[in-house]
């Protein structure tokens, strides 16, 4: 046994965990060294030269893509906020919040299952099961998304009726057309990532769609010099999403192994459904956590405060852009390392990842807290009232970043059921806090509810994952709290 490793058995679960010593877990490791170590640990192709090139390209490309996507999202929200104002932007954000909320049940958890199972089937060269899973997931997701779209349309009428406040009803109805398009795009992106096409598996949603949306918005304003409406902005989003779906479908067809295209598909419907439903539950609860504040804020306070809060939340999303970028990159590797019982490498990868995430998040939070009012003024004077909410959400997102990729760690080590329970408790807390705080505090109340729920679910989930796998997800931790000597 190497000097920097030791074996301990987890008190809960049946996993033998070989954990690093204090020297390996030393908190002073720099982010640059952590990234170097992380790259060395991710498993993949057998040829080490090709593996290194592939992983460097994927990691650097993912971060570059995430930065570009974040910049495009900032530019999109800046343009829409300046052109629509707080009220018009609120109507647009409210419609898109409903699409985000319904897109998760529309996929039925298969977008998460595809990443894991396609990677496994590819490693096993089980082409018939891969073909069966791709076909089955496409059919069931298309049917489900159409049903949800049809069911949600009358809800909009109940909420807004004939008054159609600020065009919110028409914007919502038009946005619902995105539901099946978005769901099918997510499936194709997940299949691409399962085939280790990490960059291509992110480009349609993170680059192509936002780039097209910005182009449409800018072109409409420059060519026609007319006031942009929330309805037109939603229409641009629908068209951009449709083009992204076409691109993702084309790429998947190109990289799919030839054996998959010719083999007779094999289906395991009930095992797939049993595995997908906990993933669906986790994803649904997470999206409730992320979107319920918009829904309830719109119901209690109207479009204007939704617009202010939407900008605040978009700005604070920058804090965890590294978290979301790294999670996409390492998700297949978590499953592979855990399946091979390479717990030392898995712990090192998670620790290095968490350090990188936190090292980037801290200075961003400092800038947002210090210059929040000036940053919000870029979107217009209507949005400067969200300064306090910006500070509250920044603190919440900092805690979210500090716990590392704990969500992906839980899901890809086969702990979906416990994860669903924990995230469900946090979502229930989020809903109750929003109902309690929004009527009195408005935007600030929604921010407080979100920040508290983020802290609670990350803490509970990190403890749960450690007790089941022996892996610690946080960047820096009091070792005695985790029972590590």
Automatic annotation (TrEMBL):
CDD domains reported in the protein's UniProt record: MATE_Wzx_like
Source organism superkingdom: Bacteria
Membrane spanning residue stretches: 98-119, 140-160, 166-185, 206-224, 230-252, 276-298, 318-335, 356-376, 388-406, 418-438, 444-466
Keyword Transcription regulation applies: no
Ubl conjugation in keyword set: no
Keywords, comma-separated and alphabetical: Cell membrane, Membrane, Transmembrane, Transmembrane helix
Name under which the protein is recorded: Polysaccharide biosynthesis protein
Organism: Calderihabitans maritimus
